[in-house]
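Figure S7 source data.
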Amino acid sequence: MRLEDIKIIGVVGGGTMGNGIVHVCAQSGYEVILVDTNREILDRAMKTITANLDRMVKKEKITEQKKNETLARIKTSADFGDLKSAQVVIEAIYENLDVKVDIFKRLDNLCHPDTILASNTSSLPITQLAGCTKRADRVIGMHFMNPVPMMQLIELIRGIATSDEIFNLIRELSIKLGKTPVEVNDYPGFIANRILMPMINEACFTLMEGVASAQDIDTVMKLGMNHPMGPLTLADFIGLDVCLAIMQVLYTGFSDSKYRPCPLLWKMVQAGYLGRKTGRGFFVYEK
Ligand code: NAD
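C-alpha coordinates for the predicted nicotinamide-adenine-dinucleotide complex:
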Protein backbone atom coordinates (compact mmCIF):
# COMPACT_ATOMS: atom_id res chain seq x y z
CA MET A 1 0.00 0.00 0.00
CA ARG A 2 1.18 3.55 -0.79
CA LEU A 3 0.13 6.84 0.78
CA GLU A 4 -2.06 7.63 -2.26
CA ASP A 5 -3.99 4.39 -1.66
CA ILE A 6 -5.22 5.66 1.71
CA LYS A 7 -8.57 7.38 1.07
CA ILE A 8 -10.74 6.37 4.01
CA ILE A 9 -9.70 6.35 7.66
CA GLY A 10 -11.84 4.64 10.30
CA VAL A 11 -11.77 5.81 13.92
CA VAL A 12 -13.20 3.68 16.74
CA GLY A 13 -14.21 5.72 19.79
CA GLY A 14 -15.31 9.35 19.59
CA GLY A 15 -14.24 10.55 23.05
CA THR A 16 -11.57 13.13 23.90
CA MET A 17 -8.92 11.64 21.61
CA GLY A 18 -11.16 10.05 18.96
CA ASN A 19 -12.93 13.28 18.05
CA GLY A 20 -9.57 15.07 17.78
CA ILE A 21 -8.20 12.34 15.51
CA VAL A 22 -11.32 12.52 13.31
CA HIS A 23 -10.96 16.32 13.11
CA VAL A 24 -7.30 16.17 12.03
CA CYS A 25 -7.82 13.36 9.47
CA ALA A 26 -10.84 15.08 7.86
CA GLN A 27 -9.09 18.47 7.80
CA SER A 28 -6.16 16.79 6.01
CA GLY A 29 -8.47 15.64 3.20
CA TYR A 30 -9.38 12.09 4.27
CA GLU A 31 -12.87 10.62 4.29
CA VAL A 32 -13.44 9.54 7.89
CA ILE A 33 -15.84 7.04 9.44
CA LEU A 34 -16.26 7.43 13.18
CA VAL A 35 -17.74 4.45 15.03
CA ASP A 36 -18.88 4.58 18.64
CA THR A 37 -21.42 2.69 20.69
CA ASN A 38 -24.48 4.91 20.27
CA ARG A 39 -25.94 7.88 18.43
CA GLU A 40 -25.88 10.19 21.44
CA ILE A 41 -22.09 9.85 21.84
CA LEU A 42 -21.59 10.26 18.09
CA ASP A 43 -23.68 13.46 18.08
CA ARG A 44 -21.68 14.79 21.02
CA ALA A 45 -18.42 14.06 19.15
CA MET A 46 -19.68 15.92 16.05
CA LYS A 47 -20.71 18.86 18.22
CA THR A 48 -17.21 19.05 19.71
CA ILE A 49 -15.54 18.81 16.29
CA THR A 50 -17.83 21.54 14.90
CA ALA A 51 -17.12 23.82 17.88
CA ASN A 52 -13.36 23.29 17.50
CA LEU A 53 -13.52 24.06 13.77
CA ASP A 54 -15.65 27.15 14.50
CA ARG A 55 -12.94 28.36 16.87
CA MET A 56 -10.34 27.91 14.11
CA VAL A 57 -12.50 29.93 11.70
CA LYS A 58 -12.81 32.70 14.30
CA LYS A 59 -9.03 32.76 14.75
CA GLU A 60 -8.71 32.88 10.93
CA LYS A 61 -6.68 29.66 10.86
CA ILE A 62 -9.13 28.11 8.37
CA THR A 63 -11.93 29.48 6.19
CA GLU A 64 -15.65 28.80 6.63
CA GLN A 65 -15.49 26.82 3.37
CA LYS A 66 -12.63 24.64 4.66
CA LYS A 67 -14.66 23.99 7.82
CA ASN A 68 -17.68 22.88 5.81
CA GLU A 69 -15.56 20.67 3.54
CA THR A 70 -13.95 19.08 6.61
CA LEU A 71 -17.33 18.34 8.22
CA ALA A 72 -18.68 16.92 4.94
CA ARG A 73 -15.89 14.29 4.93
CA ILE A 74 -16.99 12.84 8.30
CA LYS A 75 -19.53 10.04 8.59
CA THR A 76 -20.63 8.62 11.92
CA SER A 77 -22.01 5.17 12.65
CA ALA A 78 -22.83 2.83 15.50
CA ASP A 79 -22.26 -0.15 13.19
CA PHE A 80 -18.77 -1.66 13.16
CA GLY A 81 -19.50 -3.07 9.70
CA ASP A 82 -19.13 0.44 8.25
CA LEU A 83 -15.37 0.30 8.91
CA LYS A 84 -15.01 -2.32 6.15
CA SER A 85 -14.09 0.24 3.50
CA ALA A 86 -11.26 1.91 5.47
CA GLN A 87 -7.60 1.43 4.54
CA VAL A 88 -6.49 2.51 8.03
CA VAL A 89 -8.46 2.10 11.27
CA ILE A 90 -7.36 3.99 14.38
CA GLU A 91 -8.70 2.66 17.69
CA ALA A 92 -9.27 5.28 20.41
CA ILE A 93 -11.53 3.61 22.96
CA TYR A 94 -10.85 3.84 26.69
CA GLU A 95 -7.69 2.35 28.15
CA ASN A 96 -8.62 -1.25 28.92
CA LEU A 97 -6.59 -4.14 27.51
CA ASP A 98 -9.39 -6.73 27.43
CA VAL A 99 -11.77 -4.40 25.59
CA LYS A 100 -9.06 -3.33 23.14
CA VAL A 101 -8.12 -6.97 22.45
CA ASP A 102 -11.76 -7.69 21.69
CA ILE A 103 -11.95 -4.70 19.30
CA PHE A 104 -8.75 -5.74 17.49
CA LYS A 105 -10.10 -9.28 17.00
CA ARG A 106 -13.34 -7.86 15.59
CA LEU A 107 -11.48 -5.44 13.30
CA ASP A 108 -9.18 -8.24 12.10
CA ASN A 109 -12.16 -10.39 11.11
CA LEU A 110 -14.04 -7.51 9.51
CA CYS A 111 -11.47 -5.44 7.61
CA HIS A 112 -9.69 -6.21 4.34
CA PRO A 113 -6.44 -8.14 5.00
CA ASP A 114 -4.43 -5.12 3.77
CA THR A 115 -6.06 -2.68 6.19
CA ILE A 116 -3.68 -1.20 8.75
CA LEU A 117 -4.87 -1.36 12.36
CA ALA A 118 -3.54 1.33 14.71
CA SER A 119 -4.09 2.01 18.40
CA ASN A 120 -3.92 5.35 20.18
CA THR A 121 -3.19 3.62 23.51
CA SER A 122 -1.09 5.64 25.98
CA SER A 123 0.58 2.65 27.56
CA LEU A 124 -0.72 -0.79 26.57
CA PRO A 125 1.51 -3.18 24.58
CA ILE A 126 1.07 -2.84 20.80
CA THR A 127 2.72 -6.27 20.45
CA GLN A 128 -0.10 -7.85 22.47
CA LEU A 129 -2.83 -6.12 20.42
CA ALA A 130 -1.04 -7.22 17.23
CA GLY A 131 -0.68 -10.76 18.56
CA CYS A 132 -4.43 -11.29 18.73
CA THR A 133 -4.78 -10.56 14.99
CA LYS A 134 -3.67 -12.46 11.88
CA ARG A 135 -1.87 -9.35 10.59
CA ALA A 136 0.66 -8.49 13.30
CA ASP A 137 2.92 -6.90 10.65
CA ARG A 138 0.15 -4.36 9.87
CA VAL A 139 -0.54 -3.28 13.47
CA ILE A 140 1.10 -0.14 14.89
CA GLY A 141 0.72 2.40 17.71
CA MET A 142 -0.27 5.95 16.76
CA HIS A 143 -0.05 7.82 20.06
CA PHE A 144 -1.49 11.28 19.46
CA MET A 145 -1.28 13.92 22.20
CA ASN A 146 -4.20 15.78 23.75
CA PRO A 147 -5.65 18.09 22.35
CA VAL A 148 -5.01 16.36 19.02
CA PRO A 149 -5.64 19.34 16.65
CA MET A 150 -3.19 21.50 18.66
CA MET A 151 -0.35 19.14 19.55
CA GLN A 152 2.49 18.56 17.10
CA LEU A 153 3.84 15.26 18.40
CA ILE A 154 2.85 11.72 17.52
CA GLU A 155 4.69 8.68 18.91
CA LEU A 156 4.69 5.84 16.37
CA ILE A 157 5.11 2.56 18.19
CA ARG A 158 6.54 -0.46 16.43
CA GLY A 159 5.24 -3.75 17.79
CA ILE A 160 7.74 -6.60 17.62
CA ALA A 161 6.27 -7.69 14.26
CA THR A 162 5.37 -4.29 12.69
CA SER A 163 6.86 -4.27 9.17
CA ASP A 164 9.14 -1.52 7.86
CA GLU A 165 6.68 -0.96 5.00
CA ILE A 166 3.80 -0.23 7.39
CA PHE A 167 5.93 1.84 9.74
CA ASN A 168 7.18 4.05 6.86
CA LEU A 169 3.69 4.42 5.42
CA ILE A 170 2.21 5.49 8.77
CA ARG A 171 5.12 7.90 9.23
CA GLU A 172 4.22 9.50 5.87
CA LEU A 173 0.55 9.58 6.86
CA SER A 174 1.39 11.27 10.18
CA ILE A 175 3.35 13.98 8.36
CA LYS A 176 0.40 14.48 6.01
CA LEU A 177 -1.78 14.92 9.11
CA GLY A 178 0.55 17.79 10.09
CA LYS A 179 2.26 15.90 12.91
CA THR A 180 5.91 15.32 13.77
CA PRO A 181 6.38 11.58 14.27
CA VAL A 182 8.98 9.93 16.48
CA GLU A 183 9.84 6.25 16.20
CA VAL A 184 9.46 4.21 19.37
CA ASN A 185 9.98 0.53 20.10
CA ASP A 186 7.25 -1.15 22.09
CA TYR A 187 8.22 -0.94 25.78
CA PRO A 188 5.96 0.15 28.64
CA GLY A 189 5.05 3.85 28.59
CA PHE A 190 6.79 4.35 25.21
CA ILE A 191 8.82 7.61 25.54
CA ALA A 192 6.38 10.28 26.68
CA ASN A 193 4.83 8.50 29.65
CA ARG A 194 8.00 6.65 30.62
CA ILE A 195 9.66 9.99 31.34
CA LEU A 196 6.68 12.14 32.31
CA MET A 197 4.92 9.79 34.76
CA PRO A 198 7.92 8.99 36.99
CA MET A 199 8.47 12.77 37.26
CA ILE A 200 4.85 13.26 38.37
CA ASN A 201 5.16 10.26 40.73
CA GLU A 202 8.35 11.75 42.24
CA ALA A 203 6.54 15.05 42.75
CA CYS A 204 3.89 13.05 44.73
CA PHE A 205 6.62 11.47 46.89
CA THR A 206 8.14 14.94 47.45
CA LEU A 207 4.75 16.18 48.64
CA MET A 208 4.02 13.05 50.72
CA GLU A 209 7.35 13.30 52.53
CA GLY A 210 6.65 16.92 53.43
CA VAL A 211 9.67 18.23 51.51
CA ALA A 212 7.56 21.14 50.21
CA SER A 213 4.00 22.26 49.53
CA ALA A 214 2.22 21.37 46.28
CA GLN A 215 2.44 25.02 45.23
CA ASP A 216 6.20 25.21 45.87
CA ILE A 217 6.93 21.91 44.08
CA ASP A 218 5.14 23.26 41.01
CA THR A 219 6.88 26.65 41.28
CA VAL A 220 10.32 24.97 41.24
CA MET A 221 9.55 23.08 38.04
CA LYS A 222 7.94 26.10 36.37
CA LEU A 223 10.49 28.77 37.25
CA GLY A 224 13.54 26.55 37.68
CA MET A 225 13.06 24.20 34.72
CA ASN A 226 10.90 26.40 32.49
CA HIS A 227 8.08 23.85 32.40
CA PRO A 228 4.85 25.59 31.32
CA MET A 229 2.95 23.78 34.09
CA GLY A 230 4.09 22.22 37.38
CA PRO A 231 3.93 18.38 37.66
CA LEU A 232 1.11 18.36 40.22
CA THR A 233 -1.02 20.77 38.17
CA LEU A 234 -0.31 18.62 35.13
CA ALA A 235 -1.31 15.48 37.06
CA ASP A 236 -4.62 17.14 37.99
CA PHE A 237 -5.14 18.01 34.33
CA ILE A 238 -4.42 14.45 33.10
CA GLY A 239 -6.44 12.80 35.90
CA LEU A 240 -4.85 11.11 38.91
CA ASP A 241 -6.54 7.80 38.06
CA VAL A 242 -4.90 7.89 34.61
CA CYS A 243 -1.49 8.72 36.17
CA LEU A 244 -1.85 5.82 38.62
CA ALA A 245 -2.87 3.38 35.87
CA ILE A 246 0.19 4.33 33.78
CA MET A 247 2.53 3.98 36.79
CA GLN A 248 1.11 0.50 37.33
CA VAL A 249 1.80 -0.38 33.68
CA LEU A 250 5.44 0.76 34.14
CA TYR A 251 5.76 -1.03 37.50
CA THR A 252 4.44 -4.37 36.28
CA GLY A 253 5.79 -4.05 32.72
CA PHE A 254 9.39 -3.59 33.88
CA SER A 255 9.01 -5.56 37.16
CA ASP A 256 11.09 -2.77 38.67
CA SER A 257 10.40 -1.16 42.05
CA LYS A 258 11.72 2.19 40.82
CA TYR A 259 8.32 2.64 39.16
CA ARG A 260 6.22 1.87 42.26
CA PRO A 261 3.25 4.26 42.41
CA CYS A 262 3.48 6.74 45.30
CA PRO A 263 1.14 5.78 48.22
CA LEU A 264 -0.20 9.34 48.23
CA LEU A 265 -1.26 8.93 44.58
CA TRP A 266 -3.11 5.73 45.58
CA LYS A 267 -4.77 7.54 48.47
CA MET A 268 -5.92 10.48 46.33
CA VAL A 269 -7.47 8.10 43.78
CA GLN A 270 -9.17 6.05 46.52
CA ALA A 271 -10.64 9.29 47.91
CA GLY A 272 -12.02 10.20 44.48
CA TYR A 273 -9.72 13.23 44.24
CA LEU A 274 -9.00 12.68 40.55
CA GLY A 275 -7.98 16.23 39.60
CA ARG A 276 -9.81 18.81 37.50
CA LYS A 277 -12.53 16.41 36.40
CA THR A 278 -13.76 15.93 40.00
CA GLY A 279 -13.02 19.49 41.16
CA ARG A 280 -10.24 18.35 43.49
CA GLY A 281 -6.82 16.76 43.10
CA PHE A 282 -3.58 18.22 44.42
CA PHE A 283 -5.35 21.56 44.02
CA VAL A 284 -9.01 22.58 44.34
CA TYR A 285 -10.94 23.80 41.28
CA GLU A 286 -14.11 25.84 40.99
CA LYS A 287 -16.77 23.70 39.28
P1 NAD B 1 -12.72 8.68 26.34
O1 NAD B 1 -13.24 7.95 27.51
O2 NAD B 1 -12.85 10.17 26.25
O3 NAD B 1 -13.38 8.07 25.01
C1 NAD B 1 -13.49 6.69 24.77
C2 NAD B 1 -14.61 6.47 23.76
O4 NAD B 1 -14.59 5.10 23.36
C3 NAD B 1 -16.01 6.77 24.32
O5 NAD B 1 -16.68 7.67 23.45
C4 NAD B 1 -16.67 5.40 24.33
O6 NAD B 1 -18.07 5.45 24.08
C5 NAD B 1 -15.93 4.69 23.20
N1 NAD B 1 -16.00 3.23 23.28
C6 NAD B 1 -15.83 2.45 24.36
N2 NAD B 1 -15.99 1.15 24.01
C7 NAD B 1 -16.28 1.13 22.69
C8 NAD B 1 -16.56 0.09 21.76
N3 NAD B 1 -16.57 -1.17 22.13
N4 NAD B 1 -16.81 0.44 20.48
C9 NAD B 1 -16.80 1.73 20.09
N5 NAD B 1 -16.53 2.75 20.93
C10 NAD B 1 -16.29 2.45 22.22
O7 NAD B 1 -11.18 8.23 26.23
P2 NAD B 1 -9.94 9.09 25.63
O8 NAD B 1 -9.38 9.97 26.68
O9 NAD B 1 -10.33 9.64 24.30
O10 NAD B 1 -8.86 7.91 25.44
C11 NAD B 1 -8.91 7.04 24.34
C12 NAD B 1 -7.55 6.37 24.17
O11 NAD B 1 -6.57 7.37 23.93
C13 NAD B 1 -7.06 5.58 25.40
O12 NAD B 1 -6.39 4.43 24.97
C14 NAD B 1 -6.10 6.56 26.07
O13 NAD B 1 -5.10 5.91 26.82
C15 NAD B 1 -5.50 7.25 24.86
N6 NAD B 1 -4.94 8.59 25.09
C16 NAD B 1 -5.60 9.48 25.88
C17 NAD B 1 -5.06 10.76 26.06
C18 NAD B 1 -5.78 11.80 26.89
O14 NAD B 1 -5.15 12.78 27.27
N7 NAD B 1 -7.08 11.64 27.14
C19 NAD B 1 -3.86 11.11 25.43
C20 NAD B 1 -3.23 10.19 24.60
C21 NAD B 1 -3.79 8.92 24.43
